[in-house]
Amino acid sequence: MAVEFPTEIQRKKRKKRLQHKFPLVRIVFFFVLFVVAYVNGWFRMLVDKLPLPGNEEPAPPVVEEWIEGCTSYDGTPFELKDGYGQCSWVVNDSLMLPNAFLRYVRNLASDGAKIHWVAPKKDFGEALLAVLEDSTRHVFLHMTREDSSKVWVSSKTGCLFPGPCPHVPLGWSALSIMDNFDFEGQEKLLSADVFSGLGEAPIYPVLPGVVLEAGRDSLGMFVELNHGNGITSRMFGIGSWKMAPVVGRHLGVKDVVGRLSPQDSSSFFLTVRQNGLFVRWKDFYKSTHPVDSAQIAIFKKHLPF
Q1: Cα separation of 174 and 285, whole Å?
Q2: Are residues 252 and 206 in contact, defined by beta-carbon separation less than 8 angstroms?
Q3: Count of CA atoms in the C-beta half-sphere (13 A) of 57
Q4: Looking at residue 254, what DSSP letter applies?
Q5: Considering the entire predicted model, what is its pTM?
Q6: pLDDT by residue (tens digit) across 175-233?
Q7: DSSP single-letter state for residue 187
Q8: Rg (Cα) of the chain, in Å, rounded?
Q9: What is the residue range of 128's domain?
Q10: Distance between CA 261 and CA 52 in Å, rounded?
Q11: One domain for residues 145 and 230
Q12: Residues forming beta bridges with residue 137, ordered by sequence position
């Protein structure tokens, strides 16, 4: 029978007591640590840093390209319906604009005027229309010609913008000169167009201009005007003067030059020259009015605002 020595007996008793000792201090320590972590939000911070669904960095807000383009030129963007947007500016000395057309419009405006650009948001460079609000309001439409090219026209006049905007001098159409027209005995029509109207109807300049010459010839009285940009016109066969034109005087399109002869139906003749070359009235008018009034009416009807 084995004999246990006193030292071995004491060691076993001590070990037994240590095994049954309750770790109170350790529990208290971890409890305090848990409370501190909870109060300071350490658990939430830890969870947020874990690669869990929903913890991804939020994407920066996307600024639409048309808005960014507008604001980059100090414009104010406005949302319109049906996928269209508007960029607006107030004219001042330091205003910079994004394209040649708007810069031209800006040169026509005074300080404080407003310019608006309206276009589809997906293609903001391809405008639908532009507006200049100054002492008066001008609307310019961006329309498609028969050859599919885009042109700017004045909503009010239908004229190509920028460019001359001729007016029919009698409010009547010129008599058509057809390709197979027989000029025999009517040689004057080789370099002139003929207009017809009621007797004593008023005659107006086709464009604003300065009187180059006025007088009388075999067809009656005549007046020649310089309209600038290489364009001149000569009206002859006038029955009577409203006010005898004076060389150097400026005439507007609403200034009556004279009147037709006092007959039931009278005619007078018009010659338009560009850079010295004669151009038929119908060709000249069409070049300055690239779309007709019916097209403009349809375009306006389908505007989305």
Answers
A1: 10
A2: no
A3: 3
A4: T
A5: 0.71
A6: 666 666 665 556 566 788 888 888 888 999 999 999 999 998 877 899 999 999 999 99
A7: G
A8: 43
A9: 65-154
A10: 95
A11: no
A12: 133
Residues in the chain: 305
Residue that has been written with the tokens 């830890």 in this structure: 46
Q: Which of 154, 179, 211 is the last residue of a domain?
A: 154
Is 203 part of a structural domain of the chain? Answer: yes
Token pair recorded at residue 225:
């005007």
**Both tokens assigned to 93:** 């000395």
Residue ranges of alpha helices (H) inside the chain are 6-19, 24-39, 42-49, 65-72, 100-108, 281-288, 293-301
- Residue 117: what are its φ and ψ, rounded to 5°? -120, 120
Helices 42-49 and 24-39 sit at what angle, rounded to 10 degrees? 70
**191 and 143 within one domain:** no
C-alpha 81/C-alpha 292 separation (Å) is 28
Nearest Cα residue to 303 out of 128, 173, 73: 128
**Tokens representing residue 140 in the block:** 């310019």
Task: Characterize the bridge pairing of strands 220-228 and 265-274.
Answer: unpaired
